[in-house]
Design goal:
This protein is an alpha/beta fold. It contains 15 helices and 18 strands. Strands 7, 8, 9, 10, 11, 12, 15, 16 and 18 form a nine-stranded mixed beta sheet that branches. Bound molecules: NADPH dihydro-nicotinamide-adenine-dinucleotide phosphate.
Length: 398
Amino acid sequence: NTGILIIGAGGVSRVATTKCAMNINTFEKITLASRTISKCEAIASDIKKNQNVVINVASVDADNVPSLVKLIEEVKPRVVLNVALPYQDLTIMDACTQTGVDYVDTANYEHPDEAKFEYKEQWAKQEQFEKANVKALLGSGFDPGVTGVFCAYAQQNLFDEINYIDIMDCNAGDHGYPFATNFNPEINLREVSSNGRYWEEGKWIETKPLEIRVEHDYPEVGVKPSYLLYHEELESLCKNIKGLKRIRFFMTFGDAYIQHMNCLQNVGMLGIKEVEHKGQKIIPIEFLATLLPDPASLGPRTVGKTNIGCIIEGIKDGKKKKVYIYNICDHQECYKETGAQAVSYTTGVPAMIGTKMIYQGIWDGKGVFNIEEFDAKPFMDELMTQGLPWTILDLPVD
Ligand code: NDP
């Protein structure tokens, strides 16, 4: 088999496919498939114009394993990159083991009727992947993704032991709308309106949604209110980082965003269960997603920067040590390069890099892996040259 098959044609896919096209010497042949073929064609046509690379397109229902298997057998790729929705993770994984092809994604499986954000069902496929002699790389976006690589890099190169990690995610972009989400509204609003949770001394501690707020100074962005959320990489990092005592995740939200979200929550518009409206069954959050601006349309109007990174504290040579590893991304620069804003960009670039690590055999093995289980250095090197350069700051230890 040669080439890669990318599934999904939203904002993240636009960036990942463009970046794969920029690395066509590595990937050899690229096929882009999604539910709506016109979205694949639009991405392919921009790439032909800007990068002069041909992207093959196809339509597929990624909820349906036999359709996926048929497509994979026709395309014969070496790796499938899943940038559809988290609902499709398990079906695409099954199609990969049935056809003997490696798998990469950027978000953990979710059932459309429950918001759980856990790796359980994907980790349960360990044996299935081993038997099929293929591998799955889970969570190769920014968070999860680069945040795990930053932690792995720190563990492998900077510390003897890591005790505390705070993942700090700031989007200081302004799109000018009173309310919009930067990526899929269903996924985004489910995540933010759920209870918060962090891990300390082997236990999960639950908080009410947005209960814990800190003011954090993001380099090149400034001080922003940041809220503790549960985020899926906490589940794998608390297992894979040795010596860890606490890991937390914080994300910035403006006051207007929170006011809108609380109001929508209070009136039931974030509901994920079906309700009947004038004889028709609708899911409130799906209807809300129809009303909100399409995240893909935010690109041209979003200005400002993102800063996502990890503050890591531990021991080196018997002494306390603390570092801040982060990346800064500018919405307009991302848009100029790929036609998408920084949230899609910061996910799509690492999706390409993870796929490259697997495609080139730099990351090898059989089974299901989280990103921090591999050697971080080659991925960190790629980040520097593919558009997501990082900085390491030494912080004073208190
Ligand atoms: P979008 O909603 O913009 O795009 C999703 C794409 O998947 C659409 O093209 C959609 O098709 C397609 N799709 C949905 N269902 C199916 C199906 N059954 N069969 C085939 N195609 C389907 O999402 P984003 O691009 O914003 O996000 C993509 C992924 O990236 C998500 O899983 C998201 O959770 C993840 N993500 C990860 C981040 C990270 O840092 N790790 C950050 C941000 C996002 P159609 O257009 O027809 O609906």
